[in-house]
User: Fold these one by one.
Assistant:
Number 1:
Amino acid sequence: MRPLSYVRAESVEDAIAFVSADPHSAFLAGGTTEVDLVRLGVERPDLLVDINRLPLDLVEELPGGGLRIGALARMSDVAHEPIVRERYPGISQALLLGASEQLRNMASIGGNLCQRTRCAYFRDDLSPCNKREPGSGCSALEGLNRGHAILGTSESCIATHPSDLAVPLVAFDAVVHTIGPGGARSLAIDDFYLLPGETPEVEHPLEHGELIAAIELPPLALARDSLYLKFRDRQSYEFALVSVLAAVEVRDGAIADVRLGLGGVGTKPWRARRAEAELLGAPATAASFAAAAAAELEPAQLREHNAFKRPLAERAIVRGLTAALRGGGRMNGALP
Ligand code: SF4
C-alpha cells in the first residue's frame, strides 16, 4: 500500500500553492473518477488537495446573454438550472445522459472535463499503454477496440474522450478560465483538448498547479433549440458509442448557422467542422444532412472492431440535425 497525504484547501490561493509546491500532487474535487484511478494505481499522487470548499460553484448570467459556470458546480445542479435548460438545453441533456444520479450529484463540472479515458488497457497496469506509460505501446491498436476512436487518432493512441458535457461545450465555443501559479488565463475549449499525436499522455495545456475556475458560454441564439442524442449499449450509466450535439438555424430556406459536436468517435470532444462547412448555405434537407455527415466521417480511421461507428455516426448526425430542425431541446419529452 502506498502512503497518500490529504489536505483541504480553504482558498484558491492555498490550493494552487499546495499543488504547485509538490510535483506529485493533484487537485481533488468530486473524485468520482480520480479516486478509482488512484485505487487502481493508474494515478499515483503523493498528495491530494481537496478543493471542494472553494467558492467556485456558481452559475451566473453574463451581460449580453452568456453564462459562467463555476468549475465546482455539480453536474446535477447545472443540468437542472432553469437558465441552462432554457438557453442551452443540449448541455442539460448531455449532463443528464452521463453517469448515474449518484455520480452526477458528486461530480464537478471541472472534473467532468478532465476525466480520463475509459480505455480498458489504460486502467490495467499489466497492459502496454502509451497514455499511462509513455513509450510502452498501445494495446488497443490490435486489441479490443470496439469503443475506441475513429477521428483524431494516431499510431500512439486511439482512446476516445469520454465526456458528454464537453461535446456541447465544444460546439458552443465555450471558454475555459483557469487560475494557476502564473495567474489567470482563458482557453478556447477546442484548444483545451489536445490530440494524442506522439504524446497521448499530455491531454491538456494546463501547467501543474493550474486550476479550472469556470466555463464561460457565449450568447448563442440557436443553442436554445439544441439537442443532444446519445447512442450506447444500454440506456443508462453507459458511455457513448456515438453521441451528437446539433443546433441549426434556417433563414429563407437555407442553413444560416449550424453547430455540430460528436462524442464517442474522437480522441477529443469532436467539433464537426467539415460538416458545418458543408451545411452553411445549403438547403435544410435530408440530402444535405447526409452529405455533410459523410464529409465529416470521410477521414475516419477504422479498426477491426469499431468500423460500425462510421455509419452509426453518419446516421446520428442526420437524426440530430433533423430533430434540432424540428425544435430540438424545446420539444416536449426531449429532456431525459
Ligand atoms: Fe493506452 Fe490510448 Fe492505447 Fe488505450 S488507446 S491502450 S489509452 S495508448
Number 2:
Amino acid sequence: MTANEDIARNASRTNRFPKRRVLVVDDDPTFALLATETLEQAGFRVEVAATAQQATAAFVAFAPDLVLLDVDIPGGSGFDVCRVIRTADANADVPVVMVTGLDDTGSIDRAYDAGATDFLRKPVLWPTLPHSVDFMLRALDDRRALSRSQRKNRALLESLPDAIITISAEALVTEHLSGADDPGEDHALVGRRVEDVFPPEVARAARQFLAGEHGGRSSHEYAVGQGAERRWFEARLRPQADGSLLAITRDVTERRKSKARIEYLAYYDQLTGLPNRQLFAREGGKLLKATAASGQLAALLYLDLDRFKRVNDNLGHAAGDELLKNVAARLSRQFRTRPGVEGVRRVARLGGDEFVVLAAGLDDEKQAAEVAETVRASLTEPFDCAGHKLVVTPSIGIAIYPRDSADVDDLLVKADMAMYLAKDQGRNGHAFFGQSMAIRSLSRLELESDMRRALEHGDFRVHYQPKVDLGSGAFVGVEALLRWTDAERGAVAPDKFIPVAEETGLIVPLGEWVIGEVCGQLRRWSEMGLGHLVAAVNVSVQQFTRRDFAGRVLDALQRAGVEPTRLELEITESLLMRNVDDTTACMKRFREAGVTLSIDDFGTGYSSLGYLRQFPVDSLKIDRSFVKDMHTSDDDAAICAAIIAMARELKLKVIAEGVANADQLKFLRKHRCDQVQGYLISKPIPVDDLEMLLRGGVPGASEYDHTAHHAVLLDPKP
Ligand code: C2E
Ligand code: CA
Ligand code: CA
C-alpha cells in the first residue's frame, strides 16, 4: 500500500457516509459473484479472496470494514483465517461473519472461539444480505462510539477528584469508580450495602432518596479515621431516573483545612492567638443571650496597658510583641484554670495593647469589680521579656450588660470610654461606665485649660516629703511634690493631672515653675539655718530631653544663689533608654555642676542595674510597690534586698519610698538601705508644716504625730 492509498483510505474512513468495504472470502466463484453483485448494488465496495493466504493479505491491503468468511477454504480453514485476522490487526473489532453450510453447533462454537462476530448460514438469502451486513456495521459503529465515549468518560472520571458510586434501589453498590484523589480500586465497594460504605447519616439519607422521599439533605460531610489520619469527605446524593442513586464523594480534607486556616486568619489575632474583635463580638453576643436568659449580669472589661508605648519605643517592637504575647497568655490562662469560670469568660485582643474580657454569670456590679481586680492582679507579677523584667499595669474600663447596653459593640464603646476614665483616675485600676461619664470625659479636655490658667494664676503649690537617713536618723532632705487645688474640682491628684500635662506638653513650663519654686525655697532654708537640706524634684522625660535643660536648671540655681549640690533630680528609668548620647551629655553637665541624679520608681521599668553603670547617676529609689509588700512577700523582699545589695556594689545611694510601717523600716535597716521616705515619717506636707516638723514641733496642718515616728527612727541601730 502506497502512502497515497493510505491517505485516501483514511480520508474515506473519516467520510460521514463512507463506501463500506466488505471482504468476501470464498473459493466458490458463484457464491463470490452473487455476494459481490448484491453488496455492490447496495453501495458496498467488495473484494474477494479465494484462499486463506489471499484472505490474510487482502485483510491488510483492502482493510475491510467487515469480512464474510467461508469456513471451508483452500490453504487452511476459515477458523484459522479468523484467528490470524484477530491477532494480526489492531482493529480487532472488525466483524467477521462466518459463512457455512454446516449446521452443527460444534462449528458454531469453534467459529466464536476463533473470534467470529456472527454467523451466516448457506444458502444465503441474497436480498437480505446487504441488510444483515449493514446492521452489523451499524452495531459496530455504535459499539465504537460507545467505547469512544466510555474511554472519554473514563479519562474524565479519572481526572476528577470524585469517586462515583451507583447505588441500586435495593441500597446495594452496583458500580464504583474511584476518583483521582482516592487511590482506592475501582469496584472495590461493589456489592456492599450503603450502611457499610457510608456513615449512618449519609446512609439514612440515601435510603430516604431510594424510598422516593426527597426531603433530605443531598450534601453531607463526614470524617473517616482518627487523629492525624483523619480525612474528611463530602458525599452528594443524586437520585436517578431509573430509581437508583448516584453518590458522588470527594475528599475535602484540604478544603476543610484551608477553610479552618482562613477562619483562623479571619477570627484570631495572629500575634497572641487570642480571638479578635469579630470573633469576640460573635461569641460575646451568644454569651450575652445566655446571660439574658439566666437573668444575670455580664461585665465587659476593656483593658489598656499603661505606658505600653514606652516598651515599644525603648526596647523595640520585638520586645513589645513578646510582652503582648505574655499578657495574652496570662489573661487566658487565668480564666482557663479557674473551674466554673471557663464557660462564662471570653478574652480577646482588639489590637495594639488593648484587650477585652467578657465576664458573664455575675450577680451584681461588685462582682464585676472583683473580676477587674483579679485581672489587674494577674498582671502585676513582672514579665520576662527579651531579657528584661517588665512590670505591666492595666487601666480597665467596665460596661455592664444589660444596664449600659444590650449590644456587644455598644458595650465595647462604653467600656472603652470608661477605660479613659480609669486612666484619668491615675491608671492601674478600673472604672465603670456611668452617668457621670460624659461630664468626666469632658472634664479631661477642660483639665488642660484649667491647668494652664492655674499655672498663670499661681494656683499650684509644692509640698515636701522629708527623707531620713537611716544611719543617723536625721532629716537629710525632702522630695518636692506638686499640689493643685482647683476651685471647682477640689484637690486634683498628681497622678491625674501629671499625665495630662505630659501629653499636652504643659509639663515643661509646669516643671520649670517647680524648679524655680524649689530653688527659692532652698534659698529661704539657707537663710533659716536649714542649709543642709537637699531637695529632690521630679523631672519628666519631656523636660529632660529638651535642649539646654541643664542650662536652665543651673541658671535657676544661680539666680536663687543656691549651691547646685542641694538640688537632686528624680528621673525615671525610661529616660535612660532613650537617646543615650544626648541624655548622658546632659547628665554629665549636671554632675560637673554638682546636681545629683536619682532614678525614681526603680524596679518598675526595665533597666538592669548593670546598665546603670553607663550613667552618672547618684542614687536609686526603690519603687514603693516593692516596699509595700517587702515584709509579707518573699518575692518583693528578695527584689528589695537585691536592689540594695547591687546598688551598693555600684556605689549608688539607695532610698526606699512609701515606707509606711515599722516592719518595713526594720527590714530596710537590716539590709542597710541608706534613706527612707514615706507616711511612717510624714506625708508630703506644706512648707510651713515641714519647717515645724524639722524643728521637732507638731505640724498644725497634719493629723499625724510625726515626732512619734521620728522617735522610731532614732532607735539605736540593731
Ligand atoms: P513619685 O515621684 O513616685 O512620688 C511619690 C509618691 O508617693 C507621692 O505621690 C507621695 O505622696 C506618695 N507617697 C509617699 N510616701 C507614701 C506612703 O508611705 N504611702 C503611699 N501610699 N504613698 C506615699 P503624689 O504626691 O501623689 O505624686 C504622684 C506622682 O506624681 C509622683 O510619683 C510623681 O511621679 C508625679 N509628680 C508629683 N510632682 C511632680 C512634679 O513636680 N513633676 C513631675 N514631673 N512629676 C510629679
Ligand atoms: Ca519621685
Ligand atoms: Ca517614686
